[in-house]
Specification:
Elements (H helix, E strand, L loop, with lengths): L2 H11 L6 H22 L6 H12 L2
Length: 61
């Protein structure tokens, strides 16, 4: 599915009274997820272990 088709499908699923700002937020979310999945496919992902270590470093005082 192309990006344009994905946005059209998204807009079709949203309620009629959705704001333009909310539509933009939804599109940005989808774009970020697609970028992340592409990075993982290219081997640029971060392991769950590395993420756990980052979180631990942030939360330990």
């Amino acid at each position: 599915m192309s990006d344009k088709e994905a946005v059209i499908e998204l807009v079709k699923r949203l309620p009629a009274d959705v704001s333009l700002r909310e539509i933009v937020r939804e599109i940005e979310f989808i774009a970020a997820v697609k970028e992340g999945l592409n990075e993982i496919d290219q081997g640029k992902g971060v392991s769950i272990e590395a993420v756990e270590q980052m979180i631990e470093a942030w939360t330990i005082k």
